[in-house]
């Protein structure tokens, strides 16, 4: 009985070791998982889509800010419109790219508008004291506007392309 148990344990150990491929060829499990990682990263974040979303967000921010009566709120409507357009046209979910682009565009716009709208020495002191908070409020609001716009764009796309 001991010998048969010992043989089974030797077989299971040898089977386990033979199943592992410790070589550095392309078929090893470690190389296959390393090859899949960029694909996963590519599915999570697309630099091309981010740049497109950033350009559209900045364009929407400028156009929305140019409306005289609702200029401040129009900026965020422009960012939401950019996200809406990307959600309507794109076939994949790109919430990370749209949210990050909206946050970056609005955060920079808040800081730049503070520099331009306030007397220069006072603006520098204001940004030195509260610059992170000013940029944070702008980034959070812009990111949220982009995400909401993208969500509604994807929702409309889903409604238009769904079979009745």
Walkthrough of the structure:
- Helices cover about 85% and strands about 0% of the residues.
- The radius of gyration is 26 Å and the shape is elongated.
- The protein has 6 helices and no strands.
- It has about 160 residues and is an all-alpha fold.
- It has helices at about 1-20, 30-45, 45-65, 70-90, 95-115, 120-160.
- Helix 4 (about 70-90) packs antiparallel against helix 5 (about 95-115).
Structural class: mainly alpha
DSSP helix count? 6
Total beta strand runs = 0
- The rough form would be described as elongated
Distance between the termini: 68 Å
* Average pLDDT level: 78
Short description:
84% of the residues lie in helices and 0% in strands. It has helices spanning 2-19, 29-44, 47-65, 71-89, 95-117, 120-161.
Kindly list the characteristics that best describe this protein.
mainly alpha; elongated; 6 helices; 164 residues; 0% strand
Task: Summarize the topology.
Layout: H1 2-19, H2 29-44, H3 47-65, H4 71-89, H5 95-117, H6 120-161
Helix pairs in contact: 3-4, 3-5, 4-5, 4-6, 5-6
């Amino acid at each position: 009985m001991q010998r048969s148990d010992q043989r089974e344990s030797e077989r299971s150990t040898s089977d386990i070791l033979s199943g592992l491929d410790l070589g550095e060829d392309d078929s090893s499990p470690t190389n296959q998982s390393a090859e899949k990682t960029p694909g996963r990263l590519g599915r999570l974040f697309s630099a091309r889509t981010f740049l497109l979303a950033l350009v559209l967000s900045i364009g929407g921010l400028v156009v929305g800010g140019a409306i005289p009566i609702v200029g401040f709120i129009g900026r965020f409507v422009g960012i939401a419109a950019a996200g809406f357009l990307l959600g309507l046209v794109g076939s994949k979910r790109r919430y990370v790219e749209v949210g990050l682009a909206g946050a970056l565009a609005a955060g920079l716009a808040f800081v730049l508008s503070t520099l331009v709208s306030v007397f220069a020495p006072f603006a520098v002191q204001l940004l030195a004291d509260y610059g992170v908070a000013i940029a944070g409020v702008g980034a959070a609001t812009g990111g949220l506007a982009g995400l909401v716009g993208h969500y509604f764009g994807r929702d409309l796309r889903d409604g238009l392309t769904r079979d009745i």
